[in-house]
Write a structure and sequence with these properties.
This protein is an alpha/beta fold and 1514 residues long. It contains 53 helices and 32 strands. The longest helix has 35 residues, at 1327-1361. The chain is 44% helix and 10% strand. The radius of gyration is 41 Å and the shape is elongated. Helix 12 packs parallel to helix 14 and helix 25 (693-712) crosses helix 49.
Length: 1514
């Protein structure tokens, strides 16, 4: 087909030009440019450009490289259409360029005539001018290209890539641009470079006040000047006009009164000061202005001549050239002669700093003023005089017109784009001679005939050694896109083009072809065009389009005598353009202008078209900026070329196996994983310019900040992860170790520490708890570094790079991230992605509707519940309480509850706290939302269980609910544990966190405590007591297994007092301690407690306070040193250094945008999407669903709103969800089950896409981006100062960690087999020990088979005795019955034993409710003393004392051969927590009678396999 031929032609020519361009030299370029005129020298078709040569000198600047970029699948579908459009423009521009220069001149007198609307001279050779019919087809093909879906997607994507590459370039090279320019101080707005005002009408070029002054002057000096004739033929003098319109004193005229500025409230397309309908001053102003601003008037030449003279005089200093527009309507043949005579006679022309642009207005109202009958007549009137002057320029009759044409650079058409003519395609066969003048032919048609006649005229003028003319229409200001289509095909540059913002295809084509675009933002701001801030000019400039600025109509839209400087200055300030941006735009203005090639060389340098030929002393544009533009354009052309080459085998391409190799970020990242994910990678090359001292010092300070955090925070999750899959017995001898009082603990300077009693010294542990003064000094160090201006500058720059680098990654790999190894779509089902609500308060964990339904249910069915005691200690039932409050179940609504957020909460934390009181009643809050009340928190527990049931039903949603410990009383922990145990509040889908409200001031005021030390003791001493001796409070010990960490909450916006260097014992003030003081003592006591509990093999706790929601950014500095993670953190947006530090340290941030929206920060201003793009370790959380959410799934609602408002894609959602799981306090076993065994690894090796639903490409990008960032900082300093401070392992470190994990787990498994300590595994090398191990394993295998048979009999007997109504095993809860593969056994934690008891009906109901099931009828009481047969235990196993956790307990029977049993009351072996928070052994809800017997049986057929293995039994 013709399109295919065109594509092949283009590809072949491209290869030829690549070869030839490599042999070009600057001298040959200069020779080729010699003799060119007009814009022919400035025109650079992308096909004829030398940009196809690989750019050199890459080490000049920080360069963004993209490897393996083939444009993606859609580029393969769009490349032919894009190339066809480029080829179409090339053909049209070749025709208008003037043709070969070696042809002989055309002799004077050679006949010429119009043929089919175009003028040709006799014998004129074919110069490639497309016919009108071909033009119509090309326009239709262009429309098809604009509407082609893949082309639109491709162009939008490539433009995004251009945006982000420029943003990265500017962030990294801003200083380099200024420092490498030898005269950088001369850059910017007032630089000595030439700026061309590419678009300004001569009739409106003056300052409005100068016009008024001139009017007054003429009235006073020449009032008798004749300005017209009456119908009777009498003269009309100037004073008569003033008298007619009652303008007795011209000095009273004002700019607004005369209507020189358009009205702000009445915007329309064309502001016409000569129309009485459009001029705000009415008829008198319109008629008066005609006298002064019309060329036919007696004063116009004297008004504009001083402007031209001033411009010429100031040009050596101001360096502002102009392209003034002169109108030609085509009304008559002698119009050109009159214009030339007016210019010559009044000495208007002859200025070196000005080039004329002939403007042909097509406004509908003007066509009725003409004597033309057809459009062909108008074309004759416009072009035939030009042919005459060009054929014989030295003829006396043509001398003035020839001189005018020699000073003219372009033709311009201005059309009323809102007044539409007929469609081009409907009138394709209608020639110009058939178009009546009274009709309005299509703009596309008129533009073609103007272009075609200019092309033919240029061919004549070029052969005669005259300058050629370019075509530069007004288009894209309003109306439709068809004007822009014609402009792209026909024009060297265009004016305005605002509508191009609607078409990414046109933008990309204009960029590739480097078509000039002249915009006038101040003019458009005053018209119906986009307001200034919405103008696409800065967007076009950043993308590399060749844009420049014009003033258009200074009389109407400017306020200074130097409108061009005003235009540039306003753009610089409002668009935040730098000095180099200004000079680049100025350079573009010269390239876009119609000045001749010799003048452009004078202003830019001899080889101004080449990067190497740039003369920075003239253009003031640094070489690196032009090199970047050339590299970027070359890359886009290369991608397009590659897509064409791949077109033949593009169908069915495997997206994950792209051509090209990914460049490694640094040697530390190379390894076995690097080749697994090949995709377009972004690398930034660094110029070898030495070390920047300021940046190096800033990088060193950042490394010191990271070192200070390492000093305070050491993660233990790696140790837990190493034990993943290793089942270590936590028997009664370990968990309930018979403590003999060998440990003691006591507060030392406010921090509890421990030591062995036998140690008579002061050797309290841990030894790495830094004292308060050290902490304060470290905080001051952080504070000083954060305030350092060089650190701020470096941090801001790096954050910008991170953000735009991610955006660039998305533009390159968005489709690839959704592809799997086989090229099929990967499931990104967010609903099946595990996610954790890491920040939710239990008292507001339900929604308002759930609370309402609970109240109504209780009001209808539990009216006789005694809920409290009155003042006389008499019981009060629920019915009585509701009557007292005038609450009726059938009339109660969510609105009546008054618990949802409204506008009254914004920056009012007191109102927020009041919302916790349903209906504003504190008694209801105590009854429904407290754990410590007359009912023992029963209602609160039931509400929480309903929330857990919702999580279970969802299967993939988990939470970490907060419960409060205030520190007011010592027994708060005991009461909380009692509530937890009594109501069976353990859930697979929830981990509990304890929040400590910072309300010391209230307790001190009421006398509950006397010092801050007492509050600390009340919070931490009970934990020490149960940690030292778990048997002292088994219920609290059990609760702590289900607790993941601490939180610190309260209003951050309150002002902090100065940081005190005094102990908590000395803090007896009634004022609250400052935030940092709280953080230090919380951190120190948690760290010390964790140290002891870890030594004892007990669970540890994280510290994740509320921080950065409001208040001072100092809070974020305190938490940087003390917190594992933070909640909220939105104030990081105020400080780039802290934000960057949180990124480098990968500190988890749980953001709650809906909560922030109601309290402190509007949703659209929330920094969460910015944090996410930059790579901060963020997740989404709900905070308080009761107040901020409306659906039954608050966390899904949070994600859903964020995805829609911030346009997060499926991968983004899965990444955030994965972050929430890893950030959570759930144990490593559950995390491994949810995310994969290697979840702790940050590279793609740690990503199980079948579980996380997250693309490997995204994981690889985040991993490499982080290490590249660290490498960049080390590059700034010149040494590896971050080698031990990375928050992500390198690939080599990950491999070593995997080897270590495998070795450790094998060693631990063997050690467990022979009952050895992990530290004594070296004895396994002893051959005797190995033989014994093999022998014991064989005995255990036989014993295991016996146990399986016993369990089978137990199951059968349970059916007989009626414990189960189904002949099958007891059903699992819905949330634990799903596996990724139904053919594989359930994960390890799915088969955990459940507690089956002979409990009464109420306990059975509560247990079923806790599992989220509809409870079956309660089982009848029964005894199963003899259900389980006595089994002999191997001697070797018995001698090692098989732990109680592996045994099944029997009521009233003592175990044989190491078996033991106990009643629930004795609590010798209380509930034992498994890896994911499920309780094994003991009662599930604590509501047992004294004689209740507990027996653990497996919950799945596979569970029996784990009961007597050498590893820990599940």
């Amino acid at each position: 087909s013709k399109a295919t031929v065109s594509v092949l032609y283009w590809a072949r020519k491209m290869v030829e030009r690549e070869k030839s361009s490599q042999q070009r030299s600057p001298s040959s370029v200069a020779q080729n440019l010699e003799g060119l005129r007009g814009s022919v020298g400035s025109f650079r078709s992308w096909r004829t450009s030398s940009l196809h040569k690989e750019p050199e000198n890459h080490d000049r600047y920080y360069r963004v490289d993209i490897s393996a970029d083939d444009g993606g699948l859609e580029m393969g579908l769009a490349c032919e259409k894009i190339v066809r459009a480029l080829d179409t423009r090339d053909r049209y521009q070749h025709a208008i360029s003037g043709g070969p220069k070696d042809l002989p001149p055309v002799k004077s007198g050679t006949p010429y005539a119009m043929k089919d609307g175009v003028c040709f001279f006799e014998g004129q050779p074919d110069f490639g001018l497309p016919q009108y019919s071909e033009y119509v087809k090309d326009v239709q093909l262009m429309f098809d290209t604009l509407e082609h879906g893949p082309t639109r997607s491709t162009c939008r994507n490539r433009l995004k890539i251009l945006d982000e590459k420029y943003a990265i370039y500017i962030s990294l090279n801003y200083e380099l641009e200024e420092n490498t320019c030898p005269i950088r101080k001369g850059g910017g707005l007032f630089s000595n470079c030439v700026k061309v005002d590419n678009s300004v009408r001569l009739s409106t070029a003056m300052h409005p006040q100068d016009l008024l002054d001139y009017i007054v002057k003429t009235y006073e000096t020449v009032p008798h000047t004749v300005v017209g004739k009456t119908p009777e033929g009498k003269d009309i003098q100037l004073k008569d006009v003033f008298k007619k319109y009652e303008l007795n004193d011209p000095r009273m005229l004002t700019v607004e009164g005369v209507g020189l500025h358009p009205p702000v409230q009445k915007r329309f397309h064309r502001f016409d000061i000569f129309s009485k309908d459009y001029n705000r001053g009415g008829e008198k102003s319109a008629e008066l202005l005609k006298l002064y601003l019309k060329r036919e008037g007696p004063f116009y030449h004297n008004l504009v001549r001083p402007i031209l003279e001033r411009n010429e005089k100031e040009f050596p200093t101001q360096r502002v050239a102009t392209e003034y527009k002169l109108p030609i309507f085509g009304n008559s043949r002698d119009e050109w002669r009159k214009l030339a005579e007016w210019v010559g006679k009044n000495q208007i022309g002859g200025r070196k700093s000005n080039s004329w642009v002939i403007q042909i207005p097509r406004i509908a109202a003007l066509r009725f003023m003409s004597s033309c009958k057809t459009t062909q007549e108008q074309l004759d009137n416009i072009f035939l005089p030009l042919w005459e002057a060009s054929m014989d320029p030295h003829h006396p009759d043509n001398e003035l017109l020839s001189q005018l044409l020699a000073e003219t650079g372009a033709f311009n058409i201005i059309s009323d784009e809102q007044v539409r003519g007929q469609d081009l395609l409907e009138t394709a066969n209608k020639p110009p001679e058939q178009w009546p003048w009274s009709e309005n032919p299509p703009d596309l048609m008129f533009n073609y005939y103007l272009y075609a006649n200019l092309s033919s005229l240029n061919h004549l003028r070029s052969r005669n050694g005259l300058n050629t003319l370019t075509f530069r229409p007004h288009c894209g200001e309003s109306g439709k896109l068809d004007q822009l289509v014609g402009g792209y095909m026909l024009a060297a540059s265009i004016n305005h083009g605002y509508l191009m913002e609607r078409s990414q295809v046109l933008q990309y084509l204009f960029y590739l072809s480097q078509v000039g675009i002249v915009l006038s933002p101040l003019q458009s701001n005053g018209m119906s065009s986009p307001v200034y801030t919405n103008n696409p000019f800065p967007k076009f400039h950043k993308r590399g389009m060749r844009v420049s600025l014009g003033t258009d109509d200074p009389l109407h839209y400017h306020h200074s005598h130097r409108p061009c400087i005003e235009e540039y200055g306003t753009a610089a300030k409002l668009y935040k353009l730098g000095p180099v941006d200004i000079t680049e735009i100025a350079r573009n203005s010269v390239l876009n202008s119609g000045f001749g090639d010799s003048r452009k060389r004078e202003w830019l340098g001899d080889d101004y078209l080449e990067v190497e030929g740039n003369d920075a002393t003239l253009s003031f544009v640094p070489q690196v900026r032009l090199q970047f533009r050339e590299d970027t354009l070359y890359h886009e052309q290369k991608v397009l070329s590659q897509a064409l080459q791949n077109k033949g085998n593009r169908s069915g391409v495997n997206l994950t196996k792209r051509k090209g190799t990914a460049r490694p970020v640094n040697p530390a990242l190379t390894g076995e994983y690097e080749g697994q994910n090949v995709f377009p990678r972004i690398t930034i090359s660094t110029p070898d310019f030495g070390i920047n001292k300021d940046a190096g010092e800033a990088a060193l300070k950042l490394s010191k900040c990271l070192a200070l955090r390492k000093k305070y925070i050491q993660s233990t999750e790696v140790e837990d992860w190493l034990d993943l899959g290793v089942d270590i017995d936590e028997t009664e001898s370990n968990e309930f170790k018979a403590h003999d009082g060998s440990w003691e603990y006591l507060p030392k300077a406010g921090v509890y520490r421990y030591k062995q009693k036998e140690d008579n010294g002061d050797n309290f542990l841990p030894s790495d708890i830094h004292d308060l003064s050290t902490f304060f000094n470290d905080f001051n160090t952080i504070h000083d570094y954060v305030e350092d201006m060089h650190v701020k500058a470096l941090s801001h720059k790096r954050l910008q790079v991170l953000e735009h680098k991610f955006q660039l990654h998305l533009a390159l790999n968005a489709l690839l991230e959704n592809a799997t190894e086989d090229g099929m779509e990967q499931s990104r089902d967010f609903y099946q992605t595990p996610k954790v609500d890491t920040h939710i308060h239990a008292a507001a964990g339900m929604t308002a509707r759930q609370l309402l339904e609970f109240i109504v249910e209780k009001a209808e069915h539990c009216q006789d519940d005694v809920v409290q005691l009155n003042g006389d200690k008499d019981p009060v039932t629920l019915a009585q309480l509701l009557r007292k409050m005038r609450i009726t179940a059938d009339a109660l609504t969510v609105h009546h509850l008054n618990v949802q957020a409204d506008a009254s909460l914004f920056e009012r934390f007191d109102n927020f706290n009041d919302k916790y009181n349903p209906m504003g009643n504190a008694d209801l809050r105590t009854l429904l939302l407290k754990t410590d009340n007359y009912m023992g928190g029963r209602y609160f527990a039931e509400i929480a269980k309903k929330t857990f049931a919702q999580y279970s039903q969802d299967k993939y949603t988990y939470a970490e609910m907060r419960l409060s410990i205030y520190g007011r009383k010592r027994n708060e922990w005991t009461n909380l544990a009692q509530w937890f145990d009594t109501h069976g509040m353990a859930s697979n889908h929830n981990k509990w966190m304890v929040q400590v409200p910072r309300i010391y001031k209230i307790f001190r005021k009421h006398g509950s405590i006397t010092s801050f030390q007492q509050l600390i003791s009340n919070v931490f001493e009970p934990l020490w007591a149960v940690s030292v001796n778990p048997a002292s409070d088994p219920k609290l010990h059990h609760f702590l297994k289900h607790m993941s960490g601490f939180d610190s909450v309260d209003n951050e916006s309150t002002l902090d007092s100065s940081f005190p260097l005094q102990s908590p014992t000395e803090w007896t003030s009634h004022e609250n301690p400052p935030y940092g003081y709280w953080m230090y003592y919380m951190w120190a006591n948690i760290k010390s407690l964790n140290s002891f509990r870890s030594k004892m093999g007990l669970s540890t706790f994280s510290f994740r306070p509320h921080c950065g929601e409001s208040g001072s950014v100092d809070h974020l500095m305190f938490c940087y040193l003390t917190a594992d993670q933070v909640n909220h953190g939105v104030n990081l947006r105020h400080d780039p250094v802290l934000e960057y530090l949180y990124y480098l340290s990968q500190i988890g941030i749980a953001v709650s945008p809906l909560s922030n929206n109601s309290l402190f920060l509007d949703y659209l201003q929330n920094p969460f999407p910015t944090f996410f793009r930059r790579g901060l370790y963020v997740s989404l959380s709900t905070d308080d669903p009761l107040q901020f959410h409306h659906t039954q799934e608050p966390l899904i609602e949070e994600y859903s709103i964020a995805s829609k408002v911030w346009k997060l894609n499926a991968n983004d959602m899965c990444e955030i969800a994965k972050n929430s799981v890893v950030q959570s306090g759930f144990d490593t076993k559950l995390k491994a089950d949810l995310l994969g065994d290697k979840y702790l690894l940050s590279s793609s090796a740690g990503n199980d896409a079948n579980k996380s639903h997250l693309s490997h490409v995204r994981c690889t990008y985040r991993f490499e981006a982080y290490h590249a960032e660290i490498d960049a900082l080390e590059g700034e300093y010149g040494e590896p100062i971050f080698s031990k401070l990375r928050s992500m392992y390198t690939l080599n470190e990950e491999r070593q960690l995997l080897k270590k994990a495998n070795a450790h787990r094998n060693s631990m498994a063997l050690a467990e087999t022979v009952r050895m300590s992990p530290t004594d595994t070296n004895t396994l090398n002893n051959s005797y020990a190995l033989e014994e191990m093999v022998k014991e394993n064989e005995e255990l295998r036989i014993h295991n088979n016996n146990l399986k048979e016993a369990l089978k009999k137990v199951s059968e007997n349970l059916q007989v005795t009626g414990l189960f109504n189904s002949p099958q095993a007891p059903p699992q809860p819905p949330d634990r019955c799903s596996t990724t593969d139904p053919t594989k056994p359930a994960p390890m934690y799915v088969g955990e034993p459940r507690n089956i008891t002979t409990a009464p009906a109420r306990r059975h109901l509560d247990e079923a409710t806790a599992w989220g099931r509809t409870p079956a009828p309660p089982p009848p009481p029964t005894t199963i003393k003899s259900v389980l047969p006595r089994l002999p235990v191997p001697h070797s196993a018995g001698s090692r004392k098989i732990p109680l956790s592996r045994m099944l307990t029997l009521d009233g029977q003592q175990p044989q051969n190491g078996w033991s049993t106990t009643s629930h009351q004795q609590v010798i072996n209380p509930r034992k927590q498994n890896g994911n928070g499920v309780t094994n052994g003991g009662a599930s809800n604590g509501l047992h009678n004294d004689n209740d017997t507990v027996i653990s049986v497996p919950n799945s057929p596979q569970a029996g396999e784990y009961l007597a293995t050498p590893r820990k039994v599940k």
